[in-house]
Amino acid sequence: MANIEKYNQAFIETLEVTEDKLATLKYHDVEAWDSVGHMTLMAALEDAFDIMMETEDIVDFSSYEKGKEILKKYGVDL
Amino acid sequence: MEWISERRPAEGERTMVISGCNRGIGRAIVEKFIGERYHVIACVREADDVFRGWLSELSQRENVGCAICQLDLSSEESISKAVKDIVSSKVKLDVLINNAGVVTKGLLQMTSIQSIKDTFQVNFFGHVQLTQGLIRMFIRQKGGVILNMCSVGGMDAYPAYVSYGCSKAAMIYFTKTMSQELAPYGVRVNGIAPSMTDTRMREQMGEEANEEILRRTAMKRVAEPSEVANLAYYLASSESSFITGQIVRIDGGM
């Protein structure tokens, strides 16, 4: 599976959103992306890409697009 | 992290991580959990041959896996490395026991801020950092147990224990807050608050403090490390499945 597919899949499964909503999705836009959902999403992404994010990056991960920038730091190109 | 046994955790088997386990309460906890067929990742600052030999013997006797992970709670770098080592081992963790700690003694007016910070680094911040790193594993697997070694010293005031007592009080609040934050993921978090226990720490506290604590204790004796280990095992087991956010005193009636 391509990286972008894995990335999208983590959002879709964790936050129960459809793919067409992803591009503009931000923290708290949907009910499932609360603090609990956020940690579940981070765990899913770490699992999918076999990485460990720094706490600062977990805090900064405020949207679908911002997440792409952050994952680049960990060698994940999307 | 170095496995000292050929045996590794298999699917369906249980694994615990513990900090500070080459003596005292930590050692007793390792013995108890290995006796109950837990695999153990033992985090210690230095693992000498005696410790390795003891752990290896226990591991062989009970046919469980044991690994030693170097961890210096006074160093953020060391903690980060330990987290990375444990996470990358891909072992499914069931229990994390934040046990390591130091006792520092001194009246407030004779205690430097640096000394208080040093105590907090080991007794509090180090555990916070280690836990922050490892809870992702629990969140991912939607379950687990975290036990924090607190102390009656974090609840009851004793002269000359300002930095130790405050660091343990911080652990108590940490335990309660974490239990609220992690409950949605099926993770239970509890604290154990022993009074004086028959360990090297008891010797470090001095005769006067020992006598004062015995005077306050209804059962007129100190705790055995194995008694604290039994409580830890209970709180880690499914027998305590509805207990979270609690600080359980084990103090012989104070």
How would you explain this protein's 3D organization?
The complex is a heterodimer of chains A (78) and B (254). Chain A has helices spanning 3-15, 35-49, 55-60, 64-73. Chain A is globular. By secondary structure, chain A is mainly alpha-helical. Chain A starts with a helix and ends in a 5-residue tail after the last helix. Chain A is built from four helices and no strands. Chain A has a single domain (3-73), classed as ACP-like (Non-ribosomal Peptide Synthetase Peptidyl Carrier Protein, Chain A, Orthogonal Bundle). In chain A, helix 1 (3-15) packs antiparallel against helix 2. The longest helix of chain A has 15 residues, at 35-49. The radius of gyration of chain B is 17 Å and the shape is globular. Chain B starts with a strand and ends with a strand. Chain B has one domain (2-250): NAD(P)-binding Rossmann-like Domain (Rossmann fold, 3-Layer(aba) Sandwich). Chain B is built from seven helices and eight strands. In chain B, helix 5 (162-182) links the parallel strand 6 (144-149) and strand 7. The chains are: A mainly alpha (78), B alpha/beta (254). At the A-B interface, helix 2 of A face helix 3 and helix 4 of B.
